[in-house]
Write a structure and sequence with these properties.
Blueprint: H1 2-8, E1 23-29, H2 48-56, E2 58-64, H3 70-79, H4 107-113, E3 117-123, E4 144-148, E5 163-164, E6 167-168, H5 176-191, E7 196-201, H6 213-216, H7 225-250, E8 257-263, H8 295-298, E9 299-305, E10 314-316, E11 320-321, H9 325-333, H10 348-353, E12 363-366, E13 378-384, E14 387-392, E15 398-402, H11 420-437
Length: 441
Amino acid sequence: MRHIIASLLLVPAFTLADAPKPNLIVLLADDMGYGDLGCFGNTRIKTPNLDRMAGDGIKLTSCYCGQSVCSPSRAALMTGRNPNRFGIKDWIPNGSGIFLPKTETTVAVHLKTAGYRTCLAGKWHLNGKFNGEEPTPGDHGFDHWLATQNNAAPSHQDPTNFVRNGKRAGPLKGNSSTILMDEALGFIQQNKEKPFCVFVTFHAPHEPVAVPGAWSEQYKDEPDETKRIYFGSVSLIDHEVGRLLKFLNDEKLAANTLVFFSSDNGPETLKRYKGAERSHGSPGSLRGMKLHMTEGGNRVPGIVRWPGHIKPGQTIDEPIGFVDVLPTFCALAGAKLPDKALDGVDVSPLLFANRPPERKRPLYWQYDKALGDTTPIWAVAIRRGDYKLLADAALEKFALYDLKADIGEKHDLTRDPKQAERLKAMTAELKGMWAEVNGKR
C-alpha cells in the first residue's frame, strides 16, 4: 500500500484526503493481435476511439496476457496467479468438468469487500458446465452478469446462448459486442453512486466472426470478404469502446474511472474453423500467434486511461501482465490481497509515476500443448527485464532473446559467451518457477 500512496502523492489532482475509490473497468477483446490497432501500427483497420484512448493515457507496448490461449489467460486475469497452479492449463471445452475453483478468489471478490459493485458482461470461459453445476461469475464475486460459457453462438450476430444471473437470456438481437456494452452501461447507470468494477469481455474478433454489414462495408475496397468481416469486427469493438468513453464523460465519471483495454491472447491465424475462416489478426512485428509461446502468442495490445491521474500521451515498454491486475486494483481500492502466492505485483507506481515495479517472481508462462514454428516447440517462458527465456517441455533446450533489441525473436543468444551468466541465472529461475507452479517444491 505504501507504493500506491507514494505514487498518488505525485499526482496533484488526486489527494488522499478527498479522493473517492476509483471505478475500475476492464475491456478484453478475444484473439485480437498485437498489430490489429492503429495505435499499434495497423494502417488498414479503423480504430479511432482506441487510438484516442491511447493518446489520452498510456500505450503499453510490453503488455502480456496470462497465457497464449483463452481460459488460462482469463484465469490469470481474474486471480493474479498463474493458472497452472490450479489446474486450468488449456481452453475449457463445454461439459469438460474443468472450472475455476472457489478456493481461488477473484479480483471481483476482493473489490466487493471494499464496497464495490461488480459486473461481468461477455465471455466467461472459466467453467465447462454453464448450468449451475460449476461456479459461475456470480459465485466468483460478480453482483451482475450476462455471459456465455465460451463463444457467442451460433455466431456474434443474434446470439442465443447468453445467461443472465443464472437464467437463460436468449435469443438476443444484435451483435454481441453491442449487447455487452449495452449491459455494461446499464449496470453503470444503476450503480454510479457507488464505486464499481466492470469487466466487458468481448467475444470478437474470435471465430466464427460475424458483424453487421454496415461495419464490413467500411472496407468495401477490400476484395476479400473474410477480411472485410474481420476488419469490421475490430472496428465495431472500437465503436463500443467509444460509446463507453463518451458515456463516462457525459456522466462526469471519467475523472474517477480507470479503463484498461487488452486482448486475451494473440491472433488466431491457424484457419481451424473450416468453412468460416475469417481470422485475419496481425501479430505486428512479433513472432508467432495464438497457441505459441513466442511473443505473438502472449504479447497483446495494452491501453490504460484515467484522465487527470495518468499522464496522457505516454508509451511505456516496461513489462506488465494480466497477473498484475488483481494486486493493482486491490491497491487502488484499498482491498485486502488473497492469502496466497501471487504471480503479479501492484503496477500503479508505473502507471502514475513511470516507476518500474519490483518483482519477486518473473512473468511466467507455461502451455503444455503449445504449438509453434520451431523445433523444439517451446512450452515454458519467463521474462526478466528486457530478456526472455524459452524452454521446451522437458526443460532441456532453451532460447534466450533480448526483446529490447530483438522484438521479433530472431537472434538466439544462448551461444553468446557474453550472455553466459544471464543464461545460467534465468535458467535456474525458470526451473524454479516451473517447480513452484507445478507443485514440485
